[in-house]
């Protein structure tokens, strides 16, 4: 999973909605950006060119917000009288979004101020695009750029303001301030191959998790799988992969929707490898399904627009995301006044919209185990035990990773053997490391494998969701500190037990270890065997499409039924609950309990899931 920092463009919280008039009584702050006087060590300070195009999102207040969570649970909880009564985007707007009268009034105002305006049909997000001079004039700002500890930052010298009547329905303005922090939290190790391999065929997922007959019968017919992406789409690479793997290779299955936002100083994925991987896997498992790729710039504006577009179209019955951001980074950006706490609530509303419309959204849990990053004010990065956003969100199904049984020999003659399927974690290689540490230290790929594993943990951003409450193992944990502060293996890690409270993730797991991974192709790197939880998210999105193709109603958000089923004799799960040889570099299993933060509820028997999922 290529988890990258999002460009932490400020999602700016609004204050008490004053106007632009000169009197103090009628003027108030509508945003709190990362202002010049809050920054230290700025160099190369420049005013943003007056003609530079700036793209902002206006996030509007949610109407009847108290009903949002209730509705999302109700339509996805078996036995509730509203079960499966999904809303259309139009119905969602009528209940929760701002009225067309309000958005037309706002559009008229910003068009008069020389902005191009796009209103998303949920009535909650409006994109405005105009020159920097238009932004400065309209919001009473003075946009500037500078180098900040080696990173380019855009900010406003002045605090943005809007007239009271304009500001009143607006919850947040996104994109006035942004801090570019391009870094990958994990680069999944891959092994070059000459072409497709028998061990890496995507169909092996179907046989491993009891889905072959299900897939052959339905194949995703009549469904659309959505892929959220922050990189390019190369249809030729994808169809080449499908053809080589014996899958229908029609490029007409793939459509691309650009969802807006602006690229901030080159903040885009340099290639199309992640998108190719996601589409290849989803399309191979569900060969009759259409694939809709929602591309966006890697920015806060792009992030919001991608989801708003996907849910606004409502074409995709399942949606996959293979990107994310550490909660530690979110906390740091808020602490240093770059990001407000509204970030989590804005995304929560968007993702709840998907659940209310019956979209099954899957998010990869990450490839760095329980670890995430935080930022220091001087620009340094350090690691800690942090959840990954948005896999930590209650309205997505978080997909983690396992390692399949295998036996192999390293170049130094040391044997690596995994006797049974377990949570993916670098500790699986610790015995081999102990036998020849020097060999590992000479090979960066092997050292990277020692520090990789399935994302999982307990969120501090989101509370424990209703469907996890009372489930054994939730909010309690077993752990082993498998890595030292220097990131080296700790070979004698003792068992730690503890309690916490929050959204526990992942929910489900499947094979994600590069050592037991899947075929991948892109024209830049050729054929390889890859792993990472970014493989698993599109695989589950494909399975949702396969099951949906034989139903009159979408599966919707999986989680309420998954956690209920896991506690019954009809459970479709195989638990991975051992507290030894079963870790994600920190969390391990909780023997006898239904849930653990390393492997979630476990692996899925999809034949059984399709039978018992209502």
From TrEMBL:
* Keywords, in A-Z order: Calcium, Hydrolase, Metal-binding, Protease, Serine protease, Signal, Zymogen
Task: Answer whether the UniProt record assigns the keyword Calcium to this protein.
Answer: yes
Q: Which one GO biological process term can you cite for this protein?
A: proteolysis
Which intervals hold domain Peptidase S53?
199-614
The record's section on Gene3D superfamilies has: Peptidase S8/S53 domain
Presence of keyword Metal-binding: yes
Query: Can you provide one Gene Ontology molecular function annotated for this UniProt record?
Result: peptidase activity
Q: What is this protein called?
A: Protease pro-enzyme activation domain-containing protein
Instruction: Please name the taxonomic classification of the source.
Output: Bacteria, Bacillati, Bacillota, Bacilli, Lactobacillales
**Position of the signal peptide:** 1-24
**Needed co-factor(s):** Ca(2+)
- InterPro entries to which the protein is assigned, alphabetical: Peptidase_S8/S53_dom_sf, S53_propep, Sedolisin_dom, Tripeptidyl-peptidase_I
């Amino acid at each position: 999973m290529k988890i990258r920092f999002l460009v932490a463009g400020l999602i700016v919280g609004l204050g008490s909605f004053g106007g632009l008039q000169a009197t103090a009584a009628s003027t108030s702050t509508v945003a709190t950006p990362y202002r010049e006087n809050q920054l230290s060590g700025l160099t190369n300070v420049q005013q943003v060119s007056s003609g530079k195009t700036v793209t902002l999102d206006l996030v509007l207040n949610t109407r009847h917000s108290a009903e949002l969570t209730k509705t999302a649970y109700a339509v996805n909880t078996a036995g509730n009288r509203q079960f499966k009564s999904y809303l259309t985007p139009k119905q969602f707007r009528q209940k929760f979004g701002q009225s067309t009268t309000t958005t037309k009034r706002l559009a008229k105002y910003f068009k008069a101020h020389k902005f191009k305006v796009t209103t998303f049909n949920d009535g909650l997000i409006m994109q405005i695009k105009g020159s920097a001079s238009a932004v400065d004039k309209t919001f009473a700002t003075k946009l500037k750029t500078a180098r900040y500890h080696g990173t380019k930052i855009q900010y406003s010298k002045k605090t943005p303001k809007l007239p009271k009547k304009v500001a009143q329905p607006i919850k947040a303005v996104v994109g006035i301030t942004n801090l570019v922090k391009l870094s990958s939290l994990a680069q999944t190790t891959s092994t070059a191959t000459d072409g497709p391999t028998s061990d890496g065929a995507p169909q092996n997922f179907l046989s491993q998790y009891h889905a072959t007959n299900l897939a052959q019968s339905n194949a995703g017919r009549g469904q659309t799988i959505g892929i959220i992406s922050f990189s390019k789409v190369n249809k030729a690479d994808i169809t080449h992969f499908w053809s080589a793997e014996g899958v229908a290779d029609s490029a007409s299955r793939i459509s691309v929707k650009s969802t807006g936002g602006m690229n901030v100083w080159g903040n885009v994925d340099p290639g199309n490898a992640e998108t190719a991987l996601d589409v290849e896997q989803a399309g191979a498992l569900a060969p009759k399904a259409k694939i809709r790729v929602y591309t966006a710039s890697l920015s806060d504006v792009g992030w919001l627009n991608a989801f708003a577009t996907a849910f606004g179209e409502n074409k995709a019955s399942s949606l996959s995301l293979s990107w994310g951001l550490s909660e530690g980074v979110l906390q740091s950006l808020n602490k240093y006044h770059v990001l407000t706490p509204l970030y989590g609530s804005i995304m929560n509303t968007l993702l709840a919209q998907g659940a209310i419309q019956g979209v099954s959204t899957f998010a990869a849990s990450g490839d760095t185990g329980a670890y995430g990053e935080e930022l220091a004010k001087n620009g340094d990065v350090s690691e800690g035990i942090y959840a990954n956003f948005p896999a930590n969100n209650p309205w997505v199904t978080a997909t983690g990773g396992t390692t399949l049984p295998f036996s192999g020999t390293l170049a130094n003659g040391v044997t690596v053997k995994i006797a049974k399927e377990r949570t993916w974690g670098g500790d699986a290689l610790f015995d081999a490391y102990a036998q020849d540490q020097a060999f590992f230290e000479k090979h960066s790929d092997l050292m990277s494998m020692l520090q990789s594993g399935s994302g999982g943990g307990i969120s501090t951003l989101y509370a424990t969701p209703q469907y996890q409450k009372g489930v054994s193992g939730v909010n309690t944990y077993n752990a082993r500190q498998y890595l030292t502060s220097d990131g080296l293996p700790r070979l004698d890690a003792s068992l730690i037990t503890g309690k916490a409270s929050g959204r526990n993730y992942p929910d489900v797991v499947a094979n994600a270890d590069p050592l037991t991974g899947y075929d991948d192709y892109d024209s830049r790197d050729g054929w390889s065997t890859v792993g990472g939880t970014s493989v698993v998210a599109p695989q589950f999105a494909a399975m949702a499409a396969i099951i949906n193709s034989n139903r009159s109603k979408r599966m919707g958000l999986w989680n309420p039924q998954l956690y209920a089923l896991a506690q019954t004799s009809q459970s479709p799960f195989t638990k991975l609950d051992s507290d030894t040889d079963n870790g994600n570099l920190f969390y391990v299993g909780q023997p006898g309990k239904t849930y653990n933060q390393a492997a979630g509820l476990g692996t899925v028997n999809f034949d059984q899931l399709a039978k018992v999922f209502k």
